[in-house]
Amino acid sequence: MHIVWDNLNTHRAQAVWEDFNVRHDHRFVFHFTPLHASWVNQIELLFGIYARRVLRHSSHSSIQHLRERTEAFMNKRNQAPKPFKWTFAGFELQTGEPLRFNDHALLRRTTKGR
After folding, report:
1. To 5 degrees, how large is the angle CA 63–CA 66–CA 72?
2. To 5 degrees, how large is the angle CA 94–CA 96–CA 98?
């Protein structure tokens, strides 16, 4: 089973999840999204639409039936694609480097919510 971790806190607990996997005969493959991956939100939007239109309130008689419904959903979506409008207001990446000063004003940039 493949698990995609999309949360900063799970990155800090990788050893915990590796121990968990050992106890469960290595049945899981963990994938950690990049720490600053706002583009992943677009994938989450698509999965939300998929969950509402294919999974919610439905009953699938087999894996094949689920696969057919999933492929039909994707084929229909790809016939008239509507790209998500992705914007990112931005904040400085947390790289571990000290904050830099603005050359013009010699003032440190501040960002709300930090």
Report:
1. 140
2. 100
Instruction: Give pTM, 2 decimals.
Output: 0.49
CA distance 15 to 77: 39
* Residue with the larger pLDDT of the pair 93 and 77: 77
Q: Which of 40, 33, 28, 27 is nearest to 11 (CA)?
A: 33
DSSP readout, the chain? -EEEE-SHHHHHTHHHHHHHHHHTTT--EEEE--TT-TTHHHHHHHHHHHIIIIITT---SSHHHHHHHHHHHHHHHHHS---------------SSPPPBPTTT--B---TT-
Residue that is written with structure tokens 């309130």 in the block: 57
Amino acid identity of residue 98, one-letter, is: P
The three-point CA angle 13-14-20 to 5° equals: 95
